Amino acid sequence: MSRSIPFLELAPMHADLADELKSKFAKLLEKGLFSGGEEVDTLEKTMREYLNVPHAIPCANGTDALELALRALEIGPGDEVIVPALTWVSTAEVVSMVGAKVVFCDVDGHGLMDLLQLPGLMTARTRAIIPVHLYGKMVDMERLLKLTVNTGIHVIEDAAQAFGAFQKGRSAGAFGAIGCFSFYPTKNLGALGETGLLSTHDPSLAERLRLLSNHGQPRRDTHEVIGRNSRIDTLQAAFLNVKFSYFTVWQQKRKALAKVYLDHLQHLKRMTVPSGILQEEHNAHLFTVQTEQRDALKAYFAERGIGTAVHYPLPVPSTEAFEVNKKFPVASRLSNLTLSLPLHPYLHEDDVRRVCEEVQRFFSIR
Ligand SMILES: Cc1ncc(COP(=O)(O)O)c(C=O)c1O
C-alpha cells in the first residue's frame, strides 16, 4: 500500500522551524508581551517592503481586513458592493455585515470576476468592487481599474489567497484603494493561528484603518471614532516573522512542483490545468484543475489515500445564507468541475508524480 498523500500537511514545515518558533514563544512568554511591540513593528516593516506599499497594517484575520476596509471607506446601508459569485464566503459576508447590499458578478473560466459583466452591474449606488485573486491567480487589475476611473467607485482587493503574486512587478493588494490579506495557517504564508493584513497607499485611509482596528484610539483612552478590536497577537506576528524568512524558498518549491504537475497533466484532454500558474501573477496557492468527472476523480483519489479539496462546492449566492434568485452559470459550472490537488512546499516530488500517475490511470480506464 502506497503512503497516503494528504491535501495539505503543515506538521513537517513546523517540525523544521520548531526551534525558532519555540524560542520566539519563550522570549515573549518571559517578557509577558502579547499585544503590540517590536515583533508587530518588524512585521509591518517587512510587509511594507515586500508589498512595496507605504502602509501595511496587521489585523486579526482576513475577514476583518475586508470589513475594516469597507468601514474605512464609510460603506454601509444604501450602498452596493460588487463581489464575485465564486469565492470564499468572507468576501460577500463583510458587505452584509456593514449593512450594504451584495451584488454578485459571475466569474470567467478561471474563476475570476468576469470584467465584461462589471459595467452592467455598476449603478449610482455602487460604492466598491471587491475583486478576488482566487486560487492565487490575479484579476487583470489594469483592466479593472480602467473600468472604475472617474466613477468614484473604490476597488478593495481580496488578496487573501494571493500573497506572493505580482502583476507587472506590482504586488496583489497594491493596486486598489485597500488590499486585504489573510495569514490563515493554510495560506502560502500562514500564521499559527488567525491573522490578516491591510495595505494601502493612502495615508488618511491608513490612519482610519488603524483607528478602526484599535477602538478608535490614536493613543490610549482617547476614542476618536467608534472602532473595535482587530489587533494582531504579538505571538502571531513573531511566528510570521520567522516564517517569512523562508517564504521565497517555499514559493520556489510550490512553482517547481506545479511545473511537475503541468509536465504530466497539461496534455490531458478531459482535464484542464490552472493557467498561468508558473507566472508571477499567480502565487501557486492552489493547483485547481477542472474536469467533468470531478466527483468520480475525487472519490478515486480518496480510495487511494490522496487528499483533494473543492474550492468551492457552491457559488456564494447559492448558499443558504445568501440565496439570490439570479443565476450565475459560470460560477455554478465551476463549482461542479473544480478539484484542488495537493500542493505545498513540503510535498515530495515523488508524491506529485504519483498523483499524476493516478490521474492518468483514472482517465485511461474511463
Ligand atoms: C478569498 C478569501 N477571502 C477572505 C478570506 C478570509 O480570511 P480569514 O480566514 O483570515 O478570515 C479567505 C480565507 O480563507 C479567502 O480565501
From TrEMBL:
InterPro entries: DegT/StrS_aminotransferase (IPR000653), PyrdxlP-dep_Trfase (IPR015424), PyrdxlP-dep_Trfase_major (IPR015421), PyrdxlP-dep_Trfase_small (IPR015422). The keyword ATP-binding does not apply. The keyword Transferase applies. Gene3D superfamilies: Aspartate Aminotransferase, domain 1, Type I PLP-dependent aspartate aminotransferase-like (Major domain). Keywords: Aminotransferase, Pyridoxal phosphate, Transferase. It comes from the Bacteria. The modification N6-(pyridoxal phosphate)lysine is found at K187. GO terms for biological process: polysaccharide biosynthetic process. Belongs to the DegT/DnrJ/EryC1 family. This is DegT/DnrJ/EryC1/StrS family aminotransferase.
